[in-house]
Amino acid sequence: MTPDPSSPPKDAGETKSGRRGFMAFAAAGIAGILIAPGVRLIEVAQAAAAAGTTSTGANSKVRWGMLIDSTKCASGCNDCVTACNTENGLSGGTKTTDSQWIRKIEIKEVRTGKTQSLPVMCQHCAEPPCVDVCPTGASFKRADGIVLVDKHSCIGCRYCMMACPYKARSFVHEPLTNQNSDVPRGKGTVESCTMCVHKVDKGESPACVSACAAAGHEAILFGDLNNPESEISRRIRSIQTTQLRADLKLDPGVSYHGI
Question: Per CATH, is 52-257 categorized as 3.30.70.20?
């Protein structure tokens, strides 16, 4: 159509404004597209944005971590595992389809034949590979270093499980009942040790730490790695410690003594 010469030309600002409005409308429409059952791009974007903010109870000046003393960890003792299962509503089963947030392993020094027992869980890395590979932002690290999974954003792709060198993540295969209201879980999502974040945010210790202390072993020490005066920091400075797969330079929040 030939433009009416009697009509005034559109202001450049008005044209740009209209273009911006159209692009915003188009983006909103695209964001509404389903990329998986029940998951929309707009929800993915919101989850990713949320992952970059300070979570409730998280403080960037703090970095929570654990020190596990294998010399105090008794072979055959599963108090920490039992406490974790009870606190987080896990079945405690050992099938490949059962969730295990913490597991006891036995290691043997080939040269000396010495055996040791120690618990392994999510290592809450400063550079978590699970976060790097997650396509939706469901895997994220809180400001205080605790690595978590947003159940509302997890699409069950399990890339994070493949990326984790500690085999610390589980996939929920079956519907769940009798859940702990503080620990939401869901079929079709990935999960792992949360360091009992619901307790930490209340100023309490993780369930495994409390159970180990109650049993008289005190093999697991929990505290603020960023505070040089905290008990865990002083202890790490005074004894030999190591991180699992330190060669990967992931800077885990969990250290071990005696291995």
Answer: yes
